[in-house]
Amino acid sequence: MTTTTELTDTTTDGRQHSRRSFLRTSLAASMATVGASMAGSAFAQMTKTEGASPLTAEGSPRRTVIIDCDPGQDDAVAILMALGASDQIDLKALTVVGGNVPLSLTERNARIVRDWADKTKTLPVYAGCPKPLMRELVTVANVMGRSGLEGAPLHDPRAPLAPQHAVTYLIDTLRAAAPGSITLVAIGPLTNIATALTAAPEGAKAIREIVLMGGAWFERGNYTPAAEFNIFVDPEAASIVLGAGVPVTIVPRDVSLKTLITPQRVAPFHALKNRCGPIVGDIFNAALAYQKRRRGVDEAPMYDPCTIGYLIDPTMYGGRRVNVAVETTGQLTLGETVVDWNGRTKRPVNALWLTDIDADRFYATLLERIARLP
């Protein structure tokens, strides 16, 4: 997927400064305010975006998690990473939406992924909304392959879907759960979650946090110049979720492009002696092959698994609490996530927007969790 085009501003003395370099100035000034002792810390090495702060560990117990997804190569790796982190993530179900490819394929792929991890009988998969709230579905089969899992060895799923509709499952589960007990990880279009919160807003009280992969600000879009794919597919749903009054953490392209897949980072997965390690390596190689064909580069963005990395170890990340709005009517900017980084609009904060990540720690964490799987 494409990186943003460098934009420039001209200062009064005629010097050119790129928008990216301006927004990612070093922390020299802020380090002076927090003490010179931090200058050699992981924070100094990891956090680059001006105005971002490092996250801290909550020290909280194991999370109860539902992953809402549209598998998708990167969704598959995120699901496997969550299953490999069972000491911290109690994954209750996968709810599936149309997105990367149509629902008939995303729900099938979700069932295949659980088979890879030997969770066929213990991890239910619920099929949800086949299309966005107000629009026709757009997909990226050209990126993910016709199946959505290009590069991976596929088989017929070993068990059927759970009988409930995904939205019904979400409504029933949230209504029955204790306040603040459920974490929703959203790594596809937000149609299922928005529909559930609209039909049964009382369920919002059960949500501890929604962690979503979507949006772009400093790095701009990957589907249009302004919009990232997950938000573009169903911008109305994204707007509903951001307005629901629940804690939201957004893992955008700003993070994905700082966590690049490279051949050197793929090799350790192929070296694992289990089943899932080489599968993850094959998926990454397919992503690299697409970028090589399209852009002639040997690197690819890391998208959905970054949400799971945040659940496992938030101290790998930096970000800022801001207001985020979604453009739902713009002719050129439909699906844009408008991030009020400096509080210019005075709109209330509604999300934690992540910008920075320690990529080496992330890949070490991912490898360790995948190594735990069959």
TrEMBL record:
Keywords of the record: Glycosidase, Hydrolase
Gene Ontology MF terms in the entry: purine nucleosidase activity; uridine nucleosidase activity
Gene3D superfamilies: Ribonucleoside hydrolase-like
EC number: 3.2.-.-
Biological process per Gene Ontology, one example term: purine nucleoside catabolic process
UniProt region (Disordered), positions on chain: 1-20
InterPro entries xrefs: I/U_nuclsd_hydro_CS (IPR015910), Inosine/uridine_hydrolase_dom (IPR001910), IUNH (IPR023186), Ribo_hydro-like (IPR036452), TAT_signal (IPR006311)
Biased amino acid composition, Low complexity: 1-13
Residue span, Inosine/uridine-preferring nucleoside hydrolase domain: 65-363
GO CC annotations on file: cytosol
SUPFAM superfamilies assigned to the protein according to its UniProt record, in alphabetical order: Nucleoside hydrolase (SSF53590)
Name under which the protein is recorded: Pyrimidine-specific ribonucleoside hydrolase rihA
Annotated organism of origin: Pandoraea sputorum
Source lineage: Bacteria, Pseudomonadati, Pseudomonadota, Betaproteobacteria, Burkholderiales
